[in-house]
Amino acid sequence: xxxxxxxEMLPVVNEQGEVTGKTTRKEAHGKLRPxxxxxxxxxxxxxxxxxxxxxxxxxxxxxxxxxxxxxxxVGYGESIENALMREVxxxxxxxxxxxVFLGRYTFESDVERELVxxxxxxxxxxxxPDANELDGGRFWSAEEIAEAMGKxxxxxxxxxxxxxxxxxxx
Length: 170
Prior knowledge:
With 170 residues, this protein is of the alpha+beta class. It is built from 4 helices and 9 strands. It has one domain (9-169): Nucleoside Triphosphate Pyrophosphohydrolase. The protein has helices at 25-28, 80-92, 142-148, 156-165; strands spanning 9-13, 19-24, 35-44, 50-54, 66-68, 70-73, 100-108, 113-122, 137-140. The strands form 2 sheets. Strands 3, 4, 5, 6, 7, 8 and 9 form a 7-stranded mixed beta sheet that branches. A two-stranded antiparallel sheet has the order 1-2. Strand 7 (100-108) and strand 8 form a beta hairpin. 29% of the residues are buried.
């Protein structure tokens, strides 16, 4: 069930992450596609497996595909760190984790332009995906991810990010 608040205010940023204005979530995914910040967290367990979420069919971007454990918009006036903690708690029920910042980059599609802030963490506790946000999730081995790459199972954003931050570093 789509519970998205399309009137939610998001910051508009430049390539350096400096806020230059604000927009609604609807406008951020509209014709003009203003650059707006998002957070991604990659959750690894001690076996080296990576947790991926299954995007619900009702999502406006990449419905039904497997994606980064947590990804979400930064609210207007919210810090990157607070947005990360909020999104992870909302989507996966995980609190008390230690995020490690990996970098940021601009992601563009026909629907949006995002300044993506990428983090990773090591976590072996319970993961409880919110059924209102996700269609579940599970830990994947590096072999399973390699097998799924390029087959339309994973989001293009995840595939690009995985290659950028993890593939050459394993």
